[in-house]
Design a protein that fits this description.
By secondary structure, the protein is an alpha+beta fold. Helices cover 53% and strands 6% of the residues. The protein has helices spanning 4-17, 41-46, 70-87, 89-98, 115-119, 121-150, 156-173; strands at 101-103, 109-111, 179-181, 187-189.
Length: 190
């Protein structure tokens, strides 16, 4: 009997409160939804609007008709030069570690007097040949890179300016003990 009293109380209160058929005693009315073909402000900002300007609108455009074949060749020359430079990188590092080569202010490498190479003319000749080869590769890279960006043959001033930028980059990548030339022509170690 004691268990039935709370159940009877709940049943009577439900009858008097008006919640006969709904489980939560609340009626939810969904908002009215009107579907239109127009976009909202946000949709217009993100997606954009398409408007027909005129029915007889004409578009004027130009098409480059001449094909230049020098650009891919310049790219390949630059890539070949960088590849050659990468192949010689270990030898260059060896000479720099020995203190026999320094990075010039103009972006080229130079011989630094070294007792080991002064004693052996054969070693010095080999080193000077390497320096000549490395500088030739660098100059080709400088010229081809400038040609690629300017679409014209570079002047000597352009090559020197580009070489100085390259030298600054080499200075920042250098290891402790590497030789460098400052803008006054003096050599010092990093």
């Amino acid at each position: 009997m004691k268990k039935l009293i709370p159940l009877i109380f709940v049943f009577i209160s439900a009858i008097y409160s008006g919640c006969k058929s709904t489980p939560s005693c609340l009626t939810v009315v969904p908002p009215e939804i009107n579907l239109t073909g127009e976009k909202t402000v946000i949709e217009r900002q993100i997606i954009g609007d398409y408007k027909e300007i005129e029915k007889d609108a004409w578009i004027i455009s130009s098409v480059k008709s001449s094909v230049t074949t020098s650009e891919p060749a310049a790219d390949m020359d630059i890539i070949k030069g960088i590849h050659s430079q990468n192949q010689q990188a270990m030898i260059l590092r060896k000479y720099k570690d020995e203190g026999a080569i320094g990075e010039g202010y103009d972006g080229f490498v130079y011989y630094i007097e070294n007792s080991e190479y002064e004693k052996s003319p054969e070693k010095k000749k080999e080193l000077l040949s390497f320096i000549e080869s490395e500088n030739k590769i660098r100059k080709e890279i400088f010229i081809k890179t400038i040609q690629k960006s300017k679409k014209a043959a570079p002047s000597q001033e352009d090559i020197i300016s580009f070489g100085r930028l390259y030298a600054e980059e080499q200075r920042s990548l250098a290891l402790k003990g590497d030789w460098f030339q400052d803008k006054n022509g003096r050599w010092s170690r990093k």
